[in-house]
Amino acid sequence: MLGDKKVLFSGMQATGNLTLGNYIGALKNWLTLQDEFETFYCVVDLHSITVRQDPAELRSRARKLLTLYIAAGLDPEKNCIYYQSHVSGHAELSWILNCFTYMGELNRMTQFKDKAAKHADNINAGLFTYPVLMAADILLYQADVVPVGKDQLQHLEITRDIAQRFNAIYGDVFTIPEPYIGKTGAKIMSLQDPEKKMSKSDENPNASIYLMDDKDTIIRKFKRAVTDSEANIAYNDEQKGIHNLIDIYSVCTGKTPDEVVSEFAGKGYGDFKLAVGESVADMLAPMQARFAELEKDKAYIDSVIKNNAEKANYFAQKTLRKVQKKVGFPEKIR
Ligand code: TRP
Questions:
Q1: Ligand 1: which atom is nearest the Cα of residue 44?
Q2: Using one digit for the tens of pLDDT, what is the confidence trace for 69-103?
Q3: One of 200, 240, 318, 322 is an active-site residue; which one?
Q4: pTM check: above 0.90
């Protein structure tokens, strides 16, 4: 708790372009949490270098992601939006927690196995201890809740195990975080294969709507979306492509799936796809305009980066000092 609010922590990597799936599944929900929780939204650049990166590109993507958080509507006065690399406590706590994490536990992480298979030429120790750094992110701010996708639940589980192990030895040092499951928002699927999640790492650009796609591109991608040969707009599990388009349209317009189905009764897929494309373009337009404005305002973004890094650092140091004392490091002489 911070004051009378619960603490929420989440992070995103600045690799790949954010998609409509990230917006609907994560960002859009975050906007509704800014009054209820004391929030920390971190651009986790330390995690990014577990895979080889081009330095200039990493720096530029990280700034874009941070700017996008604000453009989407997260108020940087209320939400602590910052770079992980600007708060050294993440790396310091991560080292300490490494000494409270077992090789066997890390060996069971499915994401490590997947990534190791994908980057067989660079299976570095950082990739292996990635979950420990993530635990440090969360525990450093004494987070009560962590909104994460299903793919990160195993990492949250190990975070809880590490925290409980540490607390069992040293007393109540860390808050034990819970996963935060948002209001059941639709899971957005690939436009080219509606069995697969829409993903920023998909190699086919037609599979995903990127948040910065212009209107023409968005409409073109929806026109090409894979559907079926039923020629009937219905909401069921057999017509997965149409199901996904109905979900998207329903998020963009606020209509229920049933209302969408009756609105398009008797109409063809072509008309429907066009309407979905337009609704997505309309939903994204204000954020895109705001992003363009913010990108030009270097001084403002710099001030957000500076102020929020200071704020994050203040809370991080509080936890870190406590932990350092518990494990037996000597008091600093001032
Ligand atoms: N590993 C997360 C992902 O790839 C990103 C992340 C890093 C994170 N640290 C975190 C998410 C802490 C939540 C909390 O999606």
A1: 7
A2: 999 999 999 999 999 999 999 999 999 999 999 99
A3: 200
A4: yes
